[in-house]
Amino acid sequence: MSEILEVKDLSVSFDTYGSEVKAVRNVSFQLMKGETLAIVGESGSGKSVTAQSIIRLVPTPPGKFIGGEIRFNGEDLLQKSEKQMESIRGKEISMIFQDPMTSLNPTMTIGKQIAEGLMKHQNMSKKEAHLRGIQLLKLVGIPTPEVRIKQYPHQYSGGMRQRAMIAIALSCNPKILIADEPTTALDVTIQAQILELMRQIQEEMGTAIILITHDLGVVANTATRVAVMYGGKIVETGMVDEIFFEPKHPYTWGLLGSMPKLDKEQEELQVIPGSPPDLADPPTGCPFVTRCPYAMNVCGEHMPSDTSVSSTHEAACWLLDERAPKVDIPESAIVGGNDIYV
Amino acid sequence: MEHRQLKEIDFEPLHLKQSEAEKIVGESTSYWKDAWRRFRKNKLALFGIIIILLLAVLAIMGGPISGHNYYENQLLEANQPPSGTHWFGTDNLGRDVFARTWYGAQISLFIGLMAALIDLIIGVIWGAVAGFFGGKVDEILMRIADVLYGVPYLLVVILLLVVLPQNLWTLIIAMTITGWINMARIVRGQVMQLRSEEFIMASRSLGASNTRILRKHLIPNSLGPILVTLTLTIPSAIFTESFLSFLGIGVQAPLASWGTMSSDALPALQYYPNQLFFPAVFICLTMLAFNVIGDGMRDALDPNER
Amino acid sequence: MIKYLLKRIGYIILSLFLIITVTFILMKAAPGGPFASERASTPAIEAQMNEAYGFNDPIHEQYFSYLINAFTFDFGPSFKYVGQEVTEIIGRSFPYSLILGLEAIFIAISIGVLLGVIAAVKHNKFGDYLAMVIAVLGISVPSFIMAAILQYIFAIYLQVLPIARFESFAHTILPAAALATTPLAFIARLMRSSMLDVLNRDYIKTAKSKGLSERVVTYKHALRNAILPVVSYLGPLVVSILTGSFIIEKIFGIPGLGSEFVVSVTNRDYTVIMGTTVFFSVLLLVSILIVDLIYGLIDPRINVTSKEGNK
Fold it and tell me: Do A298 and B10 touch (CB under 8 A)?
């Protein structure tokens, strides 16, 4: 598998009332052709900002890129002009958003919203774009697409709107699809359908997907690899099995511990005590130090560096240092095979 | 590894207290403190407050310090330009424009404040009752408000002024007869929205009584929009008064307001623009000041709206 | 659609009925009969006049005949201008007001929307501050003072436009501009906040993520959504232009319906007051209906036929 996107040392900040919120700090990861990379984290961990940075949709100001590179096809997207970005958005990289209720223009028919990208990037005529739109709607599983294409978003149900969003995003066969919490706003049964649709389309079209989510259940079912974000940093990355069965970072343990499981008698779900760090004034050491039950003196002072566990698995935690006491995975974070593959 | 100099001691467990993990990051400030901080930053709104205070002082002190009164005709001294004796000049009947301007300020400000205050009282009660009880009560009260709201405000006021005997109080009554509806709608909307808000439900489910909810949640939370509406009602009431007086159906002679002064000065605009200049500038300045204060308050009190 | 229209027209007739009834009661309650004012007339003549105008009939008969007349748009003769029918006065003066009003509406909407869009697109930059300074001044300067300022600058000082009266297009510029000031400023503020709100919506991000240019996103996606509040403001806009015409027509000496109304109020010319009030009401109710229909055309979410209770 070859690499299609590389994010190197990306740092993004936001200027708010007199302070600078460092939303993303030195984040690095790669995306391989045709894979699904899940970026997992709680709200405020910087996962959405990371995703929106790739397609340069972070509003600047108040946002600003502090440093780093986003290499796509060997070129740094952060160096591109706004005009150059326009020919990449929608064509090479496209995005779907969390809430299908608000992410479609209410005063424009679905057909027009699909056609716009086609007419811009593939020089289609209005008519061609209309016909292609019908095909796309059919592809994403919307019944009677000839009728539906002329309708407005409010005439669609939530699940159908997300399908239409996917149709818009995929209209120009992009190489990368960024899905920012695509199922969070949907009913559970619809969630499964949308995820299934994304998986199916990925198989057919070979699109690489970056899936932003806070839901580990979604991750287990769709992702190839996982990056866990906390406090604006990636704290652990690995193949999906490695993250679920051999997690190394206490934050990942906490996340897994807070996930409901099938084959264990659980009195209650584990919670991670405390709240995420203030990113206007991030800690010098590990961002998780204030909530970590295994924190050591070093953790507050120095940022742990990424430590390889296997060729595909890295974690940034002082516990992986040879001088640290050996800590076993807590009982609550042990996941059985049945828990994640539904 | 870059941290070679680390010692064994660094890998001792760090004993954090639970309370420290739970401590809230960032200073929490109260709503009003926060609002005041934002308002203070708004230079324009502070400027507006200073203007209003100055105008209020002049309205009270202006007449006495001028050494003239607002009604005395001195036809020999008619239409004079500003001078040492008549600071703003005199009008076509030889009356001192400076004294008249500040006397007019009293009338204009009094009517504006009074009308806004009456609108506030009726509107808050009407809207709060409708919003709090909901159902049939709400239906009836708001239907009445809707019907009244459908009729153009100034038209109603003018028709009423045809019927009512003409004095200051009937003017205020005519102005408030439908003026309160805006306030009522805002208060009702606010109360309705708050009533269904989850924190009210949470507090209700914790066994809070109606009065407690009203006192602790509804009033403090709707105070912001009420204050903003009140501030923005004052300039519109001042405008209405000057509009009616300009047409000759508002404040009647010998009383003077900025509106009547503007109206009197208009025919001689070509020759004596100074006679119109003073009342006009002060009407605009007052409305401007109240408008920027209102805007500043809205920005400060509603963090979502920016 | 037909059903909806009929229903709306039904409501309009109901509202009119209410307005006519209330004005009738108000005029009856008015102090001093129409002939009791300044003209010193003998009681005998007054009685004769009252008889001629039907004032001696029982009140309910007066009311019913008035109601019938009102719906057939016959308000009888003016009290003050002998030999002139109210309908005649309205027919003569309304065209002036209509031209002036349409011109003012055009100025208010086009410049207001433009200023608002500039302010939103240049948010927190010079263009925004300038547009908002203009807007806050526009709201703070009453139309009659704006009229005087315009007259002084353009007619007296620069002498490029006529100061008053209504004889050519040039004559309409100043009054229309004065009439448009406040609504223009209001529309600019409305448009700015609505545009800022829309530009932060998710669907704008979607449009950008499709690779559309800033210009297409702003004008094709944002503008159409952002203009909706301005469309709902059209009703109040008509009211504002109409009441503004009372004062502006007086200042500029335009023989329009607004100045006729004001004159009839100061003269206590009851038939003219009632006639113009009813006419204004019809005008407003019809324009509000038209505005609602336009709104339904622009916003596909609103289905006019099932819109009841939506507003």
Answer: yes
